Amino acid sequence: MGARVITITSGKGGVGKTTVTANLGVALAMRGQRVVVIDADIGLRNLDVMLGLENRIVYDLVDVVENRCRLRQAMVRDKRLQELYLLPAAQTRDKTAVRPEDMVRVCDELRDSFDFLLVDSPAGIEQGFRNAVAPADEVLIVTNPEVAAVRDADRVIGLIEAEGKGPARLIINRLKPDLVRRGDMLNTDAVIELLAIDLIGIIPEDEAVITAANTGRPVAFTDNSLAGRAFHDIARRLLGEEVPFGPLKEPGFLGRLLRWMRAEGEESP
Amino acid sequence: MKLLDRLLHRQEPPSGEIARERLRLVLAHDRANISPGLLEVLKDEIIAVISRHVPIDPEGVQVTYTEGPRVNRLVADIPLQTGRRPRGG
Known about the structure:
heterodimer; B: two-stranded antiparallel sheet; 3 helices
């Protein structure tokens, strides 16, 4: 049995693959899962800085593949959590340094000792993408509610199906509820209908994600941001829980008052 | 908001709706690997073939690609040239 290998990909760059990978890694590890996040973006590594682990890297994925170190030596443990590890990409090489069968071998070596291996795919549909998808048991597609990102997501969904890795599930990232309400952004239903795949999460646009990237402490570490809670919802869904799609906006004054009154009501018998 | 738009006679639908429509078309063409350019080529060749046998109105010819629930189709709409047709009797 062993770990589930989940690849996070998107086609288009800049939609938030690395942010999603880092946060799902954190959220799953906080739920007691043993997790390795693997950066498959050789030459443009970023997962390390998202997690604030950039100063602790000694070896990387290419060192492992080329037998300069053992797999365990390349893995960086996130000290903030019990069981979260990063397998970093090489920064000075390119995608041809790793082959799909190398990724399969590395993941197979880790399967017995972990619950989740999250593979952060590079953008595009070339070798880096094929490397990232090769070991996958499941695929998550990240998109933004905009024309170019949805179009590329559709292309990638087709490729995943052709590889026999489907059906992929969808994460809609950076949704702006106010724009949707005004009719000036694709809404969730439209995106799902166009792409015809299952949704596993909606992450609202949230400034907390930017400050988290600045500090190297992903939003999922706390539940005081909307995005952080949305990432935990995805983690719970991955673990098989039925989680309703929650609110995408902080409640206004009245909403908070109502929530407070309800909470008070529940406490008194 | 919608009511306000209607009162102000705003012509354009909201941009999210435009995005959805554009994507619907783009994805259909991407998936079938049938570009709008290819449809133009098909149209020209269909006009050439058919008008060798039947007089048609080349300006009115439309070739479109549509995605259906079961089957995707190419639909060619070819208006015949309007001439006085002999009636029986």
